Amino acid sequence: MTRHAPVTISSALRTAMLVWAWGLIVLPGWSGAAMVADVTFTAQEFAFTGPDRIDQGWRSVRLANQGRDIHQVLFLKLSPNKTAEDFRSAIAADWSQLPSWVQRAGGVNSVAPGGEAWAVILLEPGDYVVICGIPDVRGLPHVLHGMMRPLRVTQSVKSVQPPDADVTITARDFSFSSDHPLRVGPQTVRMRNSGSQAHEIVFVQLAPGATAQDFLDAFVPGNPDNQAGRHVGGLTGLAPGQEGFFPVDLRPGRYGLICFLSDPVTRTPHFAYGMVLDMDVR
Q1: Which domain holds residue 154?
Q2: Is-contact 213 198, C-beta < 8 A?
């Protein structure tokens, strides 16, 4: 695999990215406009409210942000011999990376204060933790403030199919590509991780004339306001080979896709290798 030369980023932004590197029965033909959540998590500083267990399969997850900062809900599957307390101890000892014995399973990404967003992810039976890895003003991930919750995913005989996608975004090392342009109105976006590393989509609505790079340049940890745009959801990190979905209802304008996750070797955020994409919606 060829590694692209990274762009220069500030030390403050690099610290924040180390943190972010953490970023009903469903009926056939459902769409973002008609989506009903199987489970809802509510985020505040610094805690989640939500279920303790849910059934396996494709599940629609809603995150309602009632806090003052940006929040996400990231599902992490634990190895069979590990517990939520093991996870808590591991990140307290070293919060710069996730333990090797967890697997990213996606979730709802990057919801602004007062907002809400959805994602559809595939959950296998087992024990999980759901966390928020967004950095605070000091660059520390919200999970270090206690923003995590254990979750048990139980076996189920129900067979739930994934939603139909209107657009597929493919993530690779280190780029995004789309099989169709985004359009005005409600639609369901599939993210497919075809890379060798975990990837995510932070989906932002850009200000007139702004680009995703402008959004990155103006990003300040712990400050949800950004003059270049606003956070409107996306998908938290998916392991290689995984896919997930998120609904959007778009107005005309420009939107950005950003991957904030870091290379596990160099610790360089993927956006510094060029993993950003501007998309015009007309």
Answers
A1: 11-281
A2: no
Q: Is residue 53 part of a domain?
A: yes
In the sheet that holds 167-172, the strands lie side by side as 47-49, 39-44, 57-65, 116-123, 243-250, 185-193, 167-172, 175-178
Beta bridge partners, 152, equal: 53, 127
What residues of the chain score a pLDDT lower than 70?
A: 1-35
Strand partners, 232: 111
Q: Residue 34: what pLDDT?
A: 52
Nearest to 167 by CA among 10, 60, 277, 13: 277
> Which of 157, 107, 111 lies closest to 129 in space, CA to CA?
107
Instruction: Give the domain CATH number at 195.
Output: 2.60.40.420
**Predicted local distance difference test score (pLDDT) of residue 36:** 77
E-state strands within 179-273 = 185-193, 199-206, 229-238, 243-250, 253-258
